[in-house]
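Hi C.,

You asked whether I'd gotten around to modeling the 271-residue construct. I have! Everything is below, sequence then structure, no commentary in between.
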Amino acid sequence: MGKIIKETSKLIFFDIDGTLLTETKDHCVPESTTKALELLRKNGHICIINTGRPYACLDDIIKSIKVDGYVCGCGTYIRLGNNVLLANHLENELCYKIIQELETCKLEWMLEGEKALFYSNKPYKSFIGKEALDLESKIPGNIHCISEKDFHNVGFDKFIMACSPESDFNRFYNAFKNELTFIDRNGFYELVPKEFSKATGMKFLEDYLNISHQNTIAVGDSSNDIPMLKYAETGILMGGANPELQKYATFVTNSITENGIYNAFKKLELI
């Protein structure tokens, strides 16, 4: 990484959507956020994107954000500078079993890996179909439409799924409840191997960089940010997030469009 780590250096983790990147139509990083990140890094702090997205799903806008590293796929992939420190993949047999059950239970899905994403060639009724088309324009070559003949050859690290009236969610849940964490994202589910989360990614880098836990900070706005908000010494919730998440945070800052990131770190006297 090439950065000198001091006793005062903070290890800071940021969610993407609704935290660094606006969820409005323009999908941009506010100027005040860019300035805050620049000042934090200049002051010797380490800034890490911590996201549920797989690395393959990071588009040019996200990669243009100047940070020191990435925790992707809810802790299943960790990158510091140009070095990949961790890349966990589900076993092939489990991948195939999951796809079979998704199909049997009539659940709509997108499979997410380090290098590629996969979606079904069957018609989608949920938002996942639109999401797949959007991603094809943002990350061409990284997302693939597959049919049943491809199922044996698909590898992935985590996935998302959505229910419809004919879905058998309970059957799928009972089949994998001991192997996967089911994260309810209010309209769809994010499925992650049990031993991984945004918090495990934080712990990994905390140990790797030998940074004291009291110097960890996390910033997020959604339900899959709960593990990192709870784990960090200081958890910052973005303004406008679900009020239910406030109990997991140290404090609530302004919304992303109201200079929330900049104001939070000004309050902490880190910039």
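If it helps when you're writing up: The CA atoms of residues 144 and 205 lie 31 Å apart.

Thanks,
B.
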